[in-house]
Design goal:
42% of the residues lie in helices and 12% in strands. Strands 3-2-1-4-5-6-7 form a seven-stranded parallel beta sheet, with helices on both faces. Helix 4 packs parallel to helix 5, helix 6 packs parallel to helix 10 and helix 12 crosses helix 17.
Length: 469
Amino acid sequence: MADNTKLRIAMFPWLAFGHMIPWLQLAKLIAQKGHEIIFISTPRNIDRLPKLSPNLASFIHFVKLPLPQVENLPEYAEATMDLHHDDVWYLKQAYDRLQEPMKHLLQSLSPDWIFYDFTAYWLPTIARQLGIPHGFFSIFNAAVLGYFGPPSALINRADHDLNTPKDYTRQPKWVPFPTTVAFRLFEARRIFHGITGDESNVSDSYRFGETLRSCDIIAIRSCVDFEPEWLKVLEDIHRKPVIPDGQLPTTADDAGEETDTWRWIKEWLDKQEKGSIVYVAFGSEAQPSQEELTEIAFGLELSGLPFFWVLKKRLGPADTKLIELPDGFEERTKGRGVVCTSWAPQLRILAHDSVGGFLSHSGWSSVVEALQFGRALVLLTCFADQGLIAKQLAEKKIGYVLPREEGDGSFTRKSVAESLRLVVVEEEGKFYREKAMEMRGLFGDRDRQDQYVDNFLKLLESHRCLKQE
C-alpha cells in the first residue's frame, strides 16, 4: 500500500493474557504491513507483554491507561491471572470505570479504527459519538461465538429458554446443521454465574450481546478452511461483516531468546525417542483442583509413558490454595518424567520432535500452538469456552476428550492413562495422530495467515475510503 493508505488502528483487549497475547500477535502481523497500531492496556499488563522486535517497535505504540481502584481489588491486580476466578468481577468493575479515560484518549488519538474485546460493551457508543469506525475482535473461534448465538439470546436469555445450566448442554436452535458442540453439564455449571451475573455486576452474556449488537464488523480468530459452517452461522445471525483473521499461530521469532531453562529442557528432550513424550500443561489461568491433580499424576504414572509436565502449584499471588503432587510421585517417575514448576517455553517444547501428545485444557491458543506442529491432543477442560472447543475438536476427530462424569466432572487415573496411551501410542488411536499432522498444514501455514491479514486490512481500508467519499 502507498503511504497515504496506511491505517492507524487502536486495540483494546480484555485484561487477560489469554486475550492480550493473540491481540498482540494480530498487531504484529498488521504492523509488518507498515500500519500503525495503538495497543491500549493498563501499565502493569503492558510491562509484562513480550518485548517487540526492533523492526516493529516504531509501528506498535503502547498506551498505558491506569486502572481505577475499586473496593476488594488488590492494588497489584491488573489481569485475571492476578486474581482468584471468583474475584475477576472486581476487575471488570474497574475496567468499566475506564470509559471516560478511554473517551478522552480516543479524542486525542483519532484512529482510523478502534477494536475492542467482549467486555467493553460500553465502547461502541463512545466510538460512534466520536465518529470512529469500530469492531469487535473475538479471540473465541467461530464455533464458540456461533454457539452463544445472536445478541437477543445473549441479552434476553429467558426469551430463548436459556435459564439453567442444562439449557447450555444442547444444540442451539439457530445452528442449522447437526453438531455435538455444546457444554457438558459440569462445564455449564462452572460458567453459569458468569453468564447470568447479578445486581452488582454486568454479566458476561450481556457484555457479549451488546458488543456484538453494536459493533460495525466482527473480526474473529478463525479461518474458512477450518470451520466454514460456523462462520456462515455468524454471518446469518449477525447480518454484518464477519472477517476471519486466521488462527494467529505464534512464530519461532515470538518464542524469545534461548534461556538456561530451555537449554536444560532441550537436553532432556533430545534424549527421548521421537513422538514418545506426553507434554502436560494447562495454560496461564487454568488449574486442576487438588483431587484432579492427584488423578492426573497417578494416570501419568499408570500410563508408563515419558512426560514433561509444566505444573503451576498456584495461579498467582491471590491464589492461596497450593496444590501438591502425591507423595513419592517424582521419585517413582524419575528418569521417565519431568515436573517443571517454573515458566517453560511451550512453543519450543511443542516444536520438539520427541513430543507425541499434549494433555491440554483446550485453550484455543494452546490448541493452535499444538496443531501447527501436528501434536495429537488429549483434552481436559477447566472452564470458560474450553468445553465447546473440546467438543468441536472431538467432532472433527482432531482431539480426544478425556471421559468424565457428566454431573461433577470427576475422572479417574485409569481414564487418564488409557486416554494418553490411546492417543500417543496405540494403533486404535492412530487416526488422532494422523489428523493432527494433517492440521499442521492448515494451522502452521504462514502464507495462508498472511493472506487473511491482507483481506482484513483491505476491508478496513475500503471502509475508510467510503467514509472519505
